[in-house]
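Example 3.2
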Amino acid sequence: MNAQRQRAQLRLSDGLRALESAHLLRRRRTRERALLNFCSNDYLGLSRHPQVIEAMVRSAERDGVGSGASHLISGHSREHELLELELAAFLGRERALLFSTGYMANLGTVAALLERDAVVLQDSLNHASLIDAAVLSKAQRLRYAHNDVAEAAALLEAREHESPAALITDGVFSMDGDLAPLPALAQLATQHGAWLVVDDAHGIGVLGEHGGGCVEHYGLNARDVPVLIGTLGKAFGTFGAVVAGDALLCDWLVQKSRTYIYTTALPPAIAAATRASLSLIQSEPWRRDVLRRHIARFREHVVALGLQLMPSHTPIQPLLLGSSERALAAAAALEQSGLWVSAIRAPTVPKDTARLRITFSAAHTDAEVDRLCDALTDLRQQGLV
């Protein structure tokens, strides 16, 4: 091995040791025993629903396991087409376009909409995929303090008048669980002629009377939020992503979105399973009622313990602990009690804001929520939280 390669290898090994000493080394988990999961994004408990599984199996038997090609070659099946039509209707849009992942949907959409002379303005706590999407677009990148509409307005005012702009935000912020102020952002985007792009990965299916997400929750429409992005691996319990908007937007993305054009389409069986999930989301609103009950039950108990929760009324309930070491110790103690809760640390969240990211599902029972609350009470008494 030559000296240059040795230096490169040393940089990696030194970097890993530094992460481990700072309690920031990430490790994949393979469960070796049954744990009660309180860190999944399967908010409505649909990933194991018999109807969803049956739809996937039937499609796989009929259509095979893989799609075999991109949507523009031979990978676009009838199941894909029907799902796009059904998602568009559900989200109140003219059209919907399936992407293979949420990350690819964000990268491909933002880069296709903007050119080098554009300005991308986004929330400081946006998901990594939106940050990377702005980089890929090669547009000027600006960030405003979390949910600070006044700062966003000032930044838009300061840009060159003719520069096209996009205002980009998460709908529900994945690590804090709070909502973007979409009505004010929609008004701001309209005032400045900017695209408003909302990634509602954690809102669609969960928020709103019918599960329409943040847009429905706020009583907005397709004019207010012209570019709506959502993932299918959370409330839908399957996989993939959707971009919904008017026909012009979707036609443009088919022509210009590189992450749509140059990748294999989702398996038709995934599309079939998602169609079954969508039907359940619409026909079983009680799942959202159960979620709200679990969230209220949990928050009442934890606040009574004097613990620091973030201002979230979504299934994402972060318990702030500060240091990475403390968050890891609390997660390990919960695991010993048979509970699976993730410790979230920098750089996923800002330094010194490490937390337990607790998430709820309609599949949880009241007794299981109480079990989590009892475990947190024990940790509080031990001084671990």
